Every structure is written in C-alpha cells, then in structure tokens.
C-alpha cells in the first residue's frame, strides 16, 4: 500500500526541539516536491515548508522561518522536519505530503510548559 507515515511527534517545552520524519513506503519521494503542513486545534491547514526533489531549494512559512528546517534523504525515501525554539502556538497535528496528492495521517506535536 502506497503511503506516507510520519514519526511520532511528542511533547516539548517552549524553546525545545523535536524532529519529525516522514517515511514513504510503496511509493517514491524521488523527483517529487515534498511538503510539511500542520493543523492547529480548531484551525485550518497551514503550509509550513517545501523542499524540491534534489534539495536544491527550500522555502518556509514566515511563522516557522529560522526555527524549522526541512530536509530529505532520497536514498532512504524520507523527509524530515527539524523544529527548534518551539513555541506553544506550534502545537498542532503535522502532516507530510508528496505534491499535495499523497498525505500521511499526521502526528501530534504539543508544546507546553
């Protein structure tokens, strides 16, 4: 079955860090733009970051720029989101998506003291 699976998110204190990974199985991330998206409680989807197929370009939402880093390992069929200096408003369910066509089920990240 073709799917994307996000790693377990978890909890962190404000100022802390978490790293999410997204593993593709039954499909390839190679040649595809990969994205991280999140949805906070009671809010809509928020685009966070994109990485091009060979990591030649990345872009970030203003809300996470300078704090989050997207990366990928095409050989492992994986995409990552390093999240530093976390804030309570980063609490959300985080999704990876391949070209907005294939989505993972998401993983919960909670930031609180």
- Please report the number of helical segments: 0
Average pLDDT score = 96
Give me the secondary-structure category: mainly beta
**Main beta sheet: strand number and arrangement?**
7 strands, mixed
The helical percent reads under 10%
Strand content: over 45%
Q: Which shape, going by the Cα principal axes?
A: globular
What are the secondary-structure elements, in order, as H or E?
EEEEEEEEEEE
Distance between the termini: 39 Å
Any chance you could write out the topology, listing elements then pairs?
Blueprint: E1 3-6, E2 10-12, E3 18-25, E4 34-39, E5 45-51, E6 58-60, E7 68-73, E8 78-83, E9 92-98, E10 102-103, E11 107-111
Parallel strand pairs: 2-11
Antiparallel strand pairs: 1-3, 3-8, 4-5, 4-9, 5-6, 7-8, 9-10, 9-11
Describe the structure.
- It is built from no helices and eleven strands.
- A hairpin with a 4-residue loop joins strand 7 and strand 8.
- Helices cover 0% and strands 50% of the residues.
- It has strands at 3-6, 10-12, 18-25, 34-39, 45-51, 58-60, 68-73, 78-83, 92-98, 102-103, 107-111.
- The strands form two sheets. Strands 2, 4, 5, 6, 9, 10 and 11 form a seven-stranded mixed β-sheet that branches.
- It is mainly β and 113 residues long.
Summarize, please.
Helices cover 0% and strands 50% of the residues. The protein has strands at residues 3-6, 10-12, 18-25, 34-39, 45-51, 58-60, 68-73, 78-83, 92-98, 102-103, 107-111.
Main attributes of the structure:
mainly beta, 0% helix, 11 strands
């Amino acid at each position: 079955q073709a799917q994307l699976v996000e790693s377990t998110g978890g909890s962190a204190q404000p100022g802390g860090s978490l790293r999410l990974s997204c593993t593709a199985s039954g499909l390839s991330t190679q040649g595809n733009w990969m994205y991280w998206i999140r949805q906070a409680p009671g809010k809509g989807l928020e685009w966070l970051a994109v990485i091009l197929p060979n990591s030649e370009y990345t872009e970030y939402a203003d809300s996470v720029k300078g704090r989050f880093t997207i990366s990928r390992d095409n050989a492992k069929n994986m995409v990552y989101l390093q999240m530093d200096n976390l804030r309570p408003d980063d609490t959300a369910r985080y999704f990876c998506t391949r070209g907005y066509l294939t989505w993972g089920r998401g993983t919960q990240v909670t930031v609180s003291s």
